[in-house]
Each structure stands twice: as structure tokens, then as C-alpha cells.
Amino acid sequence: MTLALVSAAAFGTSGPFGKALFEGGWSPAAAVTARIGIAALVLAIPTALELRGRWHLLRKNLGVVLIYGMTGVAGCQLFYFVAVDHLSVGVALLLEYLSPVLLVGYAWATTRRRPSPLTIAGAGCALAGLALVLNVFGDVSLNLIGVAFGLAAAFCSAAYFVVASHSHDESLPPLALAGAGMAAGVLPLLAVGALGLLPMDASTEDVPFAGHQVSFLVPLLGIAVLAAAFAYVTGVLSARMLGSRLASFLALSEVLFAVLFAWWFLGELPLPIQLSGGALIIIGVLLVRASDDTAAA
């Protein structure tokens, strides 16, 4: 659980880092592509060392790597950014974070075992808390295209947790899965940029961050090394220890960390309704953790 929270906190830093790049003239697609590409480079040598003498594991798990890269790395972010073009940020995030509920339904369908009342209650509390943290009730605008892409991001997020938590005797080690998945995930992002489907604007000018003008490398390396490479490796480790369902509910704490980091780095104070939502998310996670069917996920 500690690893899952550390991973969520690392993912939560992407907001302040990303906002600094956006204000410096970077487009979201360019920032995401650079983020994943640099993370792939950072993890390349550790991945090679991890697989030394065991390269057959990569061949046997090539399909898993491709699914991981296409969904959890590239799909989530691409579909989310398309959703944001048609919806408010809060609603788009709320749709993406439906993945824990999708995983509860997936476990129910595959095991034919109905979720316990605690799991259902925990899912309800967590989603209600998420809606409050994202403050989606203030200005909600729905667009069918945006909703469709938001739900696609949710399915990609659910697939990420399923793949990350899956383990057997010849599974890729967590670090190798994250590293190879980064390499697989950056390819569709580069293709999207080459085809001109999304703007790929970047700049080497200094950017505003934490009240100062800093080199663009500061937020770029932050979003790539901390919010991608480190976050994904710890995410895979925690998912294998906890299972996909509990790991996905703990991942909801990313929005809490994002709010706290926005407060710390950007001076954006959380609203009382957001703090109340955070308490509901914590209650929801505790209920899921206490349920008797968590191990079955």
C-alpha cells in the first residue's frame, strides 16, 4: 500500500510540471511524448541489466508489453487529452477514473462472484469523493465525443492495472515491464505527431515554475523521471503485490496528491469541498481494503 501511495504521489506531480511546460509554449501532446520518450531512455539501461541472460522473457511477454504500452502508457494520456478538448478537466478525469469500477465489474464477470457489500460501498464512496475533489458540479458540460474518449481512457487505465498486476513464473520483472512498456508506448505517440493528428509544439525557453523562471529542463525531467519512470515502476510493483482492484482504488489518491502539489507549487488552494472529497476517497479505499473479496481481484 505504501508503494501504491508513493506511485500515486509521483503521478500527482505531473500537474505542476505539465502546467509549467504548457505555459512555456509546449502543447500537451508534445509534453506527453517527451515525457514517455525520456522515461523510456532513463529505464533502458536498468531494463537491459534486469533482462541480462533472460531476454527470452521479453519475447514471451511481447504481447503483454504491447498491451501495457498501448493502453496504460499511450492510450490513457492520448484519450484523456482528446476528452479534455470536449469536456472540462474535472469531468474528463472523473470518466478516466471510473477504472476501479470497471475492474470490480470485470472481476464479477470473470469470477462469477458478486462483489461484497463493502466493495460496492467503497466504490460508491470513492467515486463520490473523486467527484468532490475534481469539483465537477460547478460547471459541467457534456459532449458525446468527449464522453466516449473519457470512457476509452478509463478502459485503458483498467487494462493497465490488469496487465501490471498479472504475474507468473515467466513474467517480466516490474522494472523491465515498465521500461519496455515505455518504449512501446512512445511509438504511437510519435506516429500521432508525425501524422499531424495532434499539435506537437515545444520550446526551449525558460518556464514559470514554483514562482520562479527556470530552465524548461526542470519540469521536463521532473515529468519524465519522477512522474513517469519512477511512478510506473512503483505502480507495477504495488499492483503485483495488491492485485488490480485494490491498486486501482489506491491510485485514486493521485488526485489528492495533485491538489496538494498544486497548492504547494502553484499556490492553488484546495476548496473545503475538495478536502471533504479526499476524506470520502480514503473511506472508500479502506472499505475496499476491508472487503473479503479483495484478494480475488
From TrEMBL:
Keywords from the named record: Membrane, Transmembrane, Transmembrane helix
Domain EamA: 2-134, 145-288
Keyword Membrane: yes
Transmembrane segment boundaries: 28-49, 61-83, 89-109, 118-138, 144-163, 175-196, 216-239, 246-265, 271-288
Classification via InterPro entries: EamA_dom, EmrE-like
GO CC entries: membrane
Family according to the record: Belongs to the EamA transporter family.
Protein name from the UniProt record: Membrane protein
Organism annotation: Luteipulveratus mongoliensis
